[in-house]
Amino acid sequence: MSACRFSAILSAALVLGLLAAGCSGPAAVKAATLKPEKERKTAPDFRLKDADGRVVHLSDYRGKVVIVDFWATWCGPCRIEIPWFMDLQRRDKDRGFEVLGVAMDDEGWEVVKPFVADLKMNYRVVVGDDATSQLYGGVDALPTTFLIDREGKIAAVHVGLASRRDFEDGIEELLGSPAADNSSRDAVPAVIGPN
Question: Is the pTM of this model over 0.85?
Answer without folding.
Answer: no
